[in-house]
Amino acid sequence: MPSVAPTAGGTLEDSTGLLNLFGDPTRLRLLALLADEELSVAEVVKVTGLTQSRVSTHLGRLLKAGLLRDRKVGSSTFYRVHPAMPRAAADLWDHLGPTLDDPALREDAERRDALLRARDEGTWPAAIAGEMERHYSPGRTWQAMVHGLAALLELGDVLDVGCGDGWSASLFAPRSRSYVGVDRSERVLEAAERRGPAGARFVHADMERLPFEADTFDTALLFHVLPHAADPAVALTEAARVLRPGGRVVITTLGAHDHLDRTAGYGHGHPGFAPGALQALLTAAGLEPVQCAVTSRERKPPHFEVVTALARKPSGSRKKSS
Fold it and tell me: 42, 58, 59, 129: which one has the fewest Cβ atoms less than 10 Å from its Cβ?
């Protein structure tokens, strides 16, 4: 049945669709909650205790039917009952809304009002406590946080394997004694040369055959490159070879998954790495794992996980020929 609310004089099918739209307790609950106030999806979730997917589904149906209007603010979307909803829906809501009297609705109203008071009093953090990372605030971005943390780094001589188009160079080169970025794409390296900071050097090479002497670098960065390696074990062995004794390798990579159909278009030839498997590869490469764990999980299906690893080259390691 169509979910679009009919105008006056609608067909039997339209009228049945409208009654079906109003016949769901969750949708009535959301309409009551949003009748007089504008809330974001995250705020609706916080007030009602419903899951985000359930809230988003019902909001979507009400929006499509013209019962709600939405407004974008940064990365958030705010919803409110539409003041000009279709006539038939408006007549039904005008009759039904004032008669609703349920403990769940009263509790929702109390929580909503407390949230709005916190918002109006300027206590924005208190209003979104527990889900702050999902809300927009001017200037408060992950990129800004990364640049702030980067100021703490002392990286020595850095090798950035799979450096990309120069963004990471702008972050790490100023905190390094020297910075060398390696990538196998000449086009990507051309972009890196244009946007990279002064003093950064970029080299066309494969991660499995690094054109550097042993014991050359203090830090090796392998950010989201291992799934691109033909042989990840060889790539890690090469990274270990060019590190000085006591040097560190930092890795971020997709965790093990069964969705190569989703990643093949990005050039991935490997289905990610479980922490235990990656730790074993690091050890086999002659490195000492310090940390190796899942550090994040995407909210959207298929919920890709990211594994972060830190490993050191033993201080007594001998040089190996290239």
Answer: 129
pTM over 0.85: no
For residue 252, what are the β-bridge partners?
A: 223, 308
Q: In what order do the strands lie in the sheet with 243-254?
A: 201-204, 178-183, 157-161, 217-223, 243-254, 305-312, 288-297
The token pair at 56 is 């988003």
Report the alpha-carbon angle 54-56-57, nearest 5: 65
pLDDT at residue 15, rounded to an integer: 80
Q: Which CATH number fits domain 142-312: 3.90.550.10, 3.40.50.720, 3.40.50.1820, 3.40.50.150?
A: 3.40.50.150
Domain ranges of the chain: 12-134, 142-312
Arithmetic mean of pLDDT over the chain: 87
